[in-house]
Amino acid sequence: MRALLSVLAATCLAMPLWAQDSSEPLIERQGSPTQPIYDNPSVPDAETVVHPDEQVVAGLSSDSVAITASFDGSDILIYGAVKRETAIPPGPPIEVIITVEAPSGSATVWRKERKAGIWVNAQSVRIAAAPSFYAVATSGPLDQILRPEWDNRYRISLTHAMRAFAGREDVDSTVPFTEALLRIRKGEGLYRLDENAVSIIDQTLFRADVRLPANLIEGAYKTRIFLLRDGRVVDAFVAPITVSKVGLERWLYRLAFDQPLIYGLMSLAVAVIAGWGASAAFRSLRRA
Amino acid sequence: MQIYLPIAEVSVNAFTLIGLGGLVGLMSGLFGVGGGFLITPLLFFIGIPPPIAVATGANQVVASSVSGVLAHVKRKSVDFRMGGVLLVGGLIGSFLGVIVFNILQSLGQIDLVVQLCYVVFLGLIGLMMLQESIRTMRRSKNPTYRKRLHQHNWVHKWPLKMKFRASGLYISIFPPLLVGVAVGVLAAIMGVGGGFIMVPAMIYLLGMPTKVVVGTSLFQITFVTAFTTLMHAVSYNTVDVMLAVLLIIGGVVGAQIGTQLGAKLRAEQLRILLALLVLLVCGKLALDLFLTPDDLYEITAGVK
């Protein structure tokens, strides 16, 4: 059983977490005892959530985002409630953290150095997978409501957004490079931490609006909702969001990748016709 | 008005793009440069991924150079024979340039080489043009100076001579062929049409009269950039036609206005303007290399 579990855990860690079968229901509870998806082997088994007294029930205002030509970002309302069989436990109040994550891509972070008077890209750190968008919304200050070991296990905060380094590192420390990636992407609005953006009513109902930026790439996004008490995750919930191009955007994208020669000739034709058209238009304009 | 670009996967302001296209089109009609050396960095600046900016920039240059060259054909200021020889050289050069590009890329130093190429060539050409046009203007104020009709130098002793009627030249085909090859190599490495190198080369190395230089340069650029666009679309899927259309809308109008304006301005004034523009771009690029950058770190997509 242990062997089976560790194999399962390893498989789940190895593949992207959002790679779910499309036939599955759109919203599915994860983190049940038989599916230790978030289990980090370094955390003892006793810490694993088993039959939580409090469970998340949640929904999204939409489970798909359509990218059209006039796409200018999108707001997703994430709402839900805490389901309990018993009374509200005493102690610190319930807290909620919501993350929205885009598919990952590889990236290279360069550091410039002055060589012979000019600044050139000298050292680099290659990152195998970092999401192109990652937002964290919380009901309170993140460092107060989430304990580091639980952050580590569920990979919640921004510092955990990056997965792994690719290839051999030839730098003394990768830390300044990963910090630079976070800093630059935060500056571009691609990585966000919105503390107090989740509102909770009566320790039961919660809601948050998450803004998806205009520079969205196509793919399967993942929303995670964590229920916390005393810095520990008591329940977690995962829901996918499908972001896809529609209409003209989709048609052009498919043509460019499926029929590149036709697409290229079409681009040229557009250019030549536009150039010729403008020339003709100006000539008739001057004659008139 | 924001618009989502399907291949670049970013959302940008449509009017910014039309304005950019217009500015570059104006340069194209006025100076006979394709504008690739302006549009590619400007697209980087507004957040278009570099490979998309290079490929789509080439497509936009096709449109503005077609627009410009047609206006020049009307004015009979295109030397088709010279353009053809330059084009043959250009395609050979572009092929060689792609090989050099791949070697540099495998060494991981392509960005630096491209930047240095820009600084060195723009600097040299800009200074050369500025000096030449100032000298010409001084002479034109001095009535005793009489310009020689033809300047004969070593280039005119080469074999395989050909008559270029529109340019009023009778020279060996090797100088234009070599100019074409050199421009092709640089164009492939720097991702530009090469007009800003070719125009001065045609004036100073080949001795072509200024009035046919712009049209002939645009003629050659049209074909080289069309070839480049197709290569990028087929091998890297980096041409964003939505982005191109917006740039083109501004570009073709700008190119027409530029050609009209160019017919009214005097050739020397035009050359001073181009020289100043070239030096300005060069200065900006050189500063980027020498000044301490705001952020020492930079992210590039993909693993090198």
SSE topology sketch:
The complex is a heterodimer of chains A (288) and B (304).
Chain A: H1 2-14, E1 28-29, E2 54-60, E3 64-67, E4 74-84, E5 95-101, E6 104-115, E7 118-131, E8 134-138, H2 142-145, H3 148-154, H4 175-187, E9 191-194, E10 199-201, E11 205-212, E12 219-229, E13 232-245, H5 247-258, H6 260-287
Parallel strand pairs in A: 3-13, 8-9
Antiparallel strand pairs in A: 1-13, 2-4, 4-11, 5-8, 5-12, 6-7, 10-11, 12-13
Chain B: E1 2-5, E2 10-13, H1 14-31, H2 36-45, H3 50-74, H4 80-107, H5 110-141, E3 161-164, E4 169-172, H6 174-190, H7 195-204, H8 210-236, H9 241-264, H10 267-290, E5 297-301
Antiparallel strand pairs in B: 1-2, 3-4
Helix pairs in contact in B: 1-3, 1-9, 2-3, 3-8, 3-9, 4-6, 4-8, 5-10, 6-7, 7-8
| Tally of helical segments of chain B | 10
Q: Cα-atom Rg of chain A, whole angstroms? A: 24 Å
Poorly predicted runs of chain B:
145-149
Class inferred from helices and paired strands of chain B:
mainly alpha
Structural class of chain A: alpha+beta
Query: What is the ordering of alpha helices and beta strands of chain A?
Result: HEEEEEEEEHHHEEEEEHH
Largest sheet of chain B: 2 strands, antiparallel
